[in-house]
Amino acid sequence: MSETEMLSAAERLKQHFSSRVLNQVRQVIDLWRQLPGSQWSAERMTDFRTGCEKLQKFAQRFEAARHEQLARALLQILHSIQPGRSPDSAQLEQLNKLIIDLSKTALRHTDDKATGVPIPEKKPVYVALSHQDQAALMAEQMQYFGLRPELQISATEFQQALQRRHPSVLVIDHDFGGPQQGVALVQQLQQSRENPLPVLFTYSGNERPALAEQLQMMRCGGVGIYNETDVHSLIGQLESLLDVIPESPYKVLVIDDSRAQSQHTSNVLNKAGMLTEVINDPLTVLDVLSGFTPDLILMDMYMPGCNGMELAKVIRQQRQYLNLPIIYLSGEEDRERQLAAMAEGGDDFLTKPVESNHLLTTVRNRIVRARQLHQLIARDSLTGLLNHTHLLGALQEAMRRNTDRPLTFVMVDIDHFKQVNDTHGHPVGDLVIRNLSLFLRQRLRKSDPIGRYGGEEFAVILPDADEAQAISIMDDIRAGFANLLHDGKSLRVSFSCGVAQWQGESLSELVSSADQALYQAKHQGRNQVVGASSLPSH
């Protein structure tokens, strides 16, 4: 065997074990997501612990030090939880942080690129459309977003593919194989599965299927219905379905002078995967609020020193807590007093004793709505990215945290955007903006703040990346984006990019450096990435 062949074999073996490690990462994350729904049952806890042990073993064999370190830390916390018990809030917070760190190692892009560690192939996305040309175009666009589509030509081929392997998501024409046969195929598929497969249905022409048929689609696992030409909206839905990073856990502040009652409430919430902070002295609430930053407050009505209504009024006086949900949890049964309490800043009233599922459902619903409202306030309406104000706030926070690690700020501007609007119309221009926002979200880490800086200009914050790494990452994204078809026919658009690494200067100076690098990229011919360190003044 030649030296080249030996190296090739060694590289293949390296990639094989790398794939096993990262596939195990995804399995551990999936098992973690199942734990709160099972109330941390002994069976699910055993599955999760076994998954972490396998990850540690694979990481040791592959010499993946970061994965081994995280797996060992997870196991250490799991071993500290008494048999038959669920983790307390402190343990939950530690576990969740480790899981988020672990999930970052399984992403498609970023720092892993420099290590030569390949990202394992995920389960494919099956694409089964009646119009083969449209299916091929859709599959091509999916690949640019890092997805792995597999085209199914006929109903027979589709069923044969299912016998080999089920996909992560199915994209299927509701008439695939004949009128309404796509829906029938999905119904048959779902009957053979323990957990329903997420399905995106498509249709052709200008009119959506009749309401009765849309209801059928939803009943058999449909999570979206799209015109087959609306490729990038469909890809956006796929991106959210396949996101590997778990949502940050809900945080609840429990204010109750009864230690026994507050501990019981905390235990119920912990079992559902929520982090809690308990206050038995209501006069300390303002100090705790600033450090814990809860999603919701559960508050008793009658406490020494002040009552719940008075405390709610004080909390509402502070602007940052104006939209913070407050739920009274009290033995008060008088309806008039309950309504009076809600009029003084409360959002809901639960009467003790409250059944656990009722408490959890109420808390979850309130937090979901509050987070959705926050997203609407903080994010640009067209793209869903951070708006200008909140992006700069995220940059300021990143500068505060990253005192001893590299931090890079990136400015992105779509090339010849006015020409796109003038030639193709503003709706197509808006589509290009949405596509770039989706492309950036897809190719960057969820922990990398991305914002719409204004108009056709975007900005990205890359913690733990120096200028050279940021240039490499953004240039790869630039090359991929230039291949996208935005009108489904021939419109391709590029962008230019300026990159500046933070060297301790002020926020405005850092932004100005990235902006000057962007100007240089435009001046040099566009469709390129320029680093601020290469400018004459640097």
TrEMBL record:
Q: What is its EC number?
A: 2.7.7.65
Supply the InterPro entries for this chain. CheY-like_superfamily, Diguanylate_Cyclase, GGDEF_dom, Nucleotide_cyclase, Rev_trsase/Diguanyl_cyclase, Sig_transdc_resp-reg_receiver
The molecular function terms in GO held by this entry are: diguanylate cyclase activity
Task: Look up and give the organism this protein is from.
Answer: Venatoribacter cucullus
Q: Which GO terms describe its cellular component?
A: plasma membrane
**Protein name, UniProt field:** diguanylate cyclase
Instruction: Show the Pfam families listed in the entry.
Output: GGDEF, Response_reg
Task: Tell me which cofactor or cofactors this protein depends on.
Answer: Mg(2+)
Q: Which UniProt keywords apply?
A: Phosphoprotein
Question: The Response regulatory domain covers which part of the protein?
Answer: 251-367
Which residue ranges does the record assign to the GGDEF domain? 405-534
Q: Looking at the keywords, is Phosphoprotein present? A: yes
SUPFAM superfamilies in UniProt: CheY-like, Nucleotide cyclase
Question: Does the UniProt entry include the keyword Phosphoprotein?
Answer: yes
Q: Which GO terms describe its biological process?
A: cell adhesion involved in single-species biofilm formation; negative regulation of bacterial-type flagellum-dependent cell motility; phosphorelay signal transduction system
Catalytic activity as recorded in UniProt: 2 GTP = 3',3'-c-di-GMP + 2 diphosphate
| Modified residue annotations for 4-aspartylphosphate | D300
